[in-house]
Amino acid sequence: MQPLAAILALVLVNATSAGALPKGAIVDLSHPYDAETIFWPTESGFVLEPEHDGLTDKGYYYRSNKFSAPEHGGTHIDAPAHFAKDGNFVDAIPLEQLVGPAVVVDVSRKCQADRDYRIAIDDFRDWEKVHHEIPERSIVLLRTGFGKYWRDRKSYLGTDERGPGAVPKLHFPGLDPAAAGWLVRERKIKAIGLDTASIDYGQSTLFETHVELMTHNVPAMENLANLEQLPPTGITVVALPMKIAGGSGGPLRAIAILEER
């Protein structure tokens, strides 16, 4: 079996044509899955069931579990098929869309002031005035600051209630549909992610941002971790989901590799 670093290097070379694995610190962008992992209020959540833990009758130690979980919860990806009839299922998302250069747009100040804030086109234009135009085929990460609330369900979602009645009580920021369309058409992004439970803001009922992105085969990563540890530019993201055949999404292990400066 090839070493993990060699496999990752091959993925990056093939997906980005960069020619080498970037050198630099690695930041984990995924929360762990356990009984406290946050899912949509209508979902049951993650369940880990032990099957064996101890010595076997032959004298060696052995541990094995089984798990169950909805596709959408914890750090996960929404495949285009989630909101687009002809969109890619999670197993069909091209690797090139899941690996590559990324930018981080920090809108945490506005989102902390307004839980229902919708990230606007002007937020991206303001970011570009300081940095540069978002490169074509970038992965865009949105830092709302809500990652600091992870594990505190009420602070993170706006409610700690469960069931259908809790959905209208959700309050967290997301991406405005017009801004999603601008990113797709004007900046031709290949993927997007953020540190809240949905790319649409919590009060959305039509999920227009999902529709705008996914009808253009742009996947969205949700419930990302540690975005506060990332600089605005100079990072490569590797975001590999569970390869569920016909899945509308799935658990995601994502990392960011920071360029050495």
How many angstroms does the end-to-end distance come to?
33 Å
How many discrete structural domains? 1
> What Rg is obtained from the alpha carbons, in whole angstroms?
19 Å
**Largest sheet: spatial strand order:** 4-10-9-7-5-11-12
Q: What is the CATH level 1 assignment?
A: Alpha Beta
Describe this structure in words.
- It contains seven helices and twelve strands.
- Helix 6 (177-186) runs parallel beside helix 7.
- The chain is globular.
- With 261 residues, the chain is an alpha/beta fold.
- Helices cover 21% and strands 25% of the residues.
- It has one domain: Glucose Oxidase, domain 1 (3-Layer(bba) Sandwich), CATH 3.50.30.
- The strands form three sheets. A seven-stranded mixed β-barrel has the order 4-10-9-7-5-11-12. It has a two-stranded antiparallel sheet with strand order 2-3. A two-stranded parallel ribbon has the order 6-8.
- Helix 7 (208-214) links the parallel strand 9 (191-194) and strand 10 (220-222).
- Residues 15-19 have low confidence and may be disordered.
- The protein starts with a helix and ends with a strand.
What order do the helices and strands come in, and which of them pair?
Layout: H1 4-16, E1 26-28, E2 47-55, E3 61-68, E4 76-78, H2 95-98, E5 99-106, H3 108-113, E6 118-119, H4 121-130, E7 139-143, H5 153-157, E8 174-175, H6 177-186, E9 191-194, H7 208-214, E10 220-222, E11 235-241, E12 249-258
Parallel strand pairs: 5-7, 6-8, 7-9, 9-10
Antiparallel strand pairs: 1-12, 2-3, 4-10, 4-12, 5-11, 11-12
Helix pairs in contact: 6-7
